[in-house]
Amino acid sequence: MLLAALTQNNLEMTLVTMPLVGCLFGFLRYNFNPASVFLGDCGSLLIGFLLGCFGVLWSQKSATLVGMTAPMMAMAIPLLDAALAVIRRFLRHQPIFGADREHIHHRLLDRGMTPKKAALLLYGICGLGAVLSLLANSVHNQFGGLIIILFCCAAWIGIQHLGYVEFGMARQMFFNGTFRRIIDTQTKLRNFQQALTAADTLEDCWAALQAGGRECGFHSIRVNIKSMVRESIIRPDHGDESACWQLRIPLLDSQYVNFQHDLHAAVDPLLLGAFVKIVERTLNAKLSHLEPEVVTPPSLSGQIVTRSA
User: Fold this and answer.
1) Using alpha carbons only, how large is the chain's radius of gyration in Å?
2) Other C-beta atoms within 10 Å of 115: how many?
3) What pLDDT sits at residue 182?
4) Please, are residues 91 and 166 in contact by the beta-carbon 8 Å criterion?
5) Strands of 218-225's sheet, edge to edge?
6) Dihedral (C-alpha) 273, 275, 277, 283: value to the nearest 10 degrees?
7) Would you state the pLDDT for residue 302?
8) Which domains are seen in the chain, by residue range?
9) Residue environment code for 273-307, b if the CB has 16+ CB neighbours within 10 A, otherwise e
10) Most buried residue, 56, 64, 71, 160, by most Cβ within 10 Å?
11) What contacts 252, CB < 8 A, 6 or more positions away?
12) What are phi and psi of 130, to 5 degrees?
């Protein structure tokens, strides 16, 4: 930044950066590995704030977008590390401001580097970014865009070599259709929950359970609610009836809902867990309001059996 100020004849930026440069060189004498002093929060946050202010002064002298990105290239490592931390924790549903051991220098240490080698590598990358930022700032519109594209490609390759599992999983979910399947699953669960919540009678609950079980891949259902026992095949194309597993959802007062699923058919564990919670919570909340009914079933070759106590 001091070199950029000198090349741009930016007197204000030169005057404010020189004291910080002197302080940092003096501090680095004792902070280099093996370090005897370390920055605390106050020191690191102050330096970050000053660098942000100096970046604004730097970009004010550039009327082009390329010139405005030069300070960001010079501070690529801290900006990239902060951005990766936020995205990683967001993808894993972790606290954004929580601590972890997944920062760039941690990943370098996990790959077998010593602290000194990791620090020197980061110094070299920061120096390269600073040189490219000065170069992009000097050539203006001629090759500035190309320099930024090459820098972004190099940063992307570096991120891939760090081995963050979160980004690989997110990429696979997006391109393999997993993300679309999750949306489809959540839509089915939301529609099923709305239908079951809106049910006012046992007949409505029975219809909602049949429709929801069919959407989730179950081939038969059996319920015992309010002394009424019903059983129905909701997917006749399920295959071998003997090769199946059962899901039993217990309700209050020894009541239950049973679902059967083909043993060889795929099942989504996320859908299954949410489906069980919806049935258990919604029906238990409705049991005190539902009245027992006696329904005479039609003759459907034993597919539906109704018994009332």
Assistant:
1) 32
2) 13
3) 82
4) yes
5) 244-250, 256-262, 218-225, 228-233, 305-308
6) -160
7) 41
8) 2-175 (no CATH), 178-308 (3.30.450)
9) ebbeebbeebbeebeeebeeeeeeeeeeeeeeebe
10) 71
11) 284, 287
12) -65, -40
The closest of 277, 274, 270, 267 to 246, measured between CA atoms, is: 267
Write the pLDDT tens digit of every residue in 71-123. 888 888 999 999 999 999 988 888 999 888 999 999 999 989 999 999 999 99
In terms of average pLDDT, the best of 61-70, 115-124, 130-139, 175-184 is: 115-124
Amino acid at 75: M
**pLDDT at position 300:** 39
Q: Which amino acid does the sequence have at 296?
A: T
Which residue did the predictor score with more confidence, 102 or 143?
102
Q: Of 260, 185, 278, 268, which Cα lies nearest the Cα of 218? A: 260
Query: Could you tell me if 297 and 238 are in contact, meaning their C-beta atoms sit under 8 angstroms apart?
Result: no
**pTM as predicted:** 0.65
Q: Which residue has the tokens 């839509």?
A: 187
Segment 65-75 mean pLDDT:
79
Count, residues in the chain:
309
Q: From 81, 77, 84, 209, select the one nearest 133 (Cα to Cα).
A: 77
* pLDDT value for 72: 86
